[in-house]
Amino acid sequence: MWQDKLKEIIYILEHSDVNEIDVTFLGKRYRVVKSAPVSTDSPDQKTHSAPATVSTTESSPIETETPVADETVAGNEVLSPMPGTFYSSPSPEEDTFVNEGDKVNKGDTLCIIEAMKIMNEIEAEEGGVVRKILVENADPVEYNQPLFIIDPSG
Q1: Of 93, 81, 74, nearest to 137 (Cα)?
Q2: What is the three-class DSSP state of 39?
Q3: Pair 105, 50: CB distance under 8 Å
Q4: pLDDT in tens, 115-139
């Protein structure tokens, strides 16, 4: 079953302008990257791209350290699962879901991403302390864009 999904992802990648797809499925992380197109000096020749490559790694969740404006904030990145608009509160009149320095538990709502007029609540996958909020309210976000850095040891 997962092989079929992976084949679909590769097909989508090869037939689109997207250069990279990163998916976690059944505890494994699949990163499919299309090589950069090969260009020539002659405008008569078409550009060709090399076949996509696939790498898999065990995942639970992905830990990274992200440099932010001359300082390093250690923790796990919370990535956007979809493109859309980032909202830090349920409505403009209400308080934000989380602020930097807040302690969160697994399952707590961190933000909302509006995609195609649907409000999708993004929940914490683990508990910890919100070290950095990387997106401003009402900013557009892309798939897999880092939104928060959460320190699980905090």
Answers
A1: 93
A2: coil
A3: no
A4: 999 999 999 999 999 999 999 999 9
Report field, pTM of the whole predicted structure over 0.70 = no
CA-based radius of gyration for the chain: 18
Range list of β-strands (E), 15-70: 20-25, 28-33, 53-58, 64-68
Phi and psi for 19 in degrees, rounded to 5? -100, -20
**Phi, psi for residue 148 in degrees, rounded to 5:** -140, 160
Q: How many CB atoms lie within 10 A of CB 13?
A: 18
How far is the C-alpha of 130 from the C-alpha of 152, rounded, in Å? Answer: 9
Concatenated DSSP letters of 69-108: TTEEEEEEEEEPSSSEEEESSSSTTSPPS--TT-EE-TT-
Q: Please give the angle made by the CA atoms of 12, 83 and 13, to the nearest 5 degrees.
A: 15
Q: What would the pLDDT profile of 23-76 be if each residue is shown by its tens digit?
A: 776 666 767 776 655 555 555 544 454 555 555 555 444 444 444 444 567 789
Q: State the Cα–Cα distance between residues 81 and 51, nearest whole angstrom.
A: 25
Residue 143 contacts residue 83 (beta carbons within 8 Å): yes
Work out the number of other CB atoms within 10 angstroms of the CB of residue 141. Answer: 22
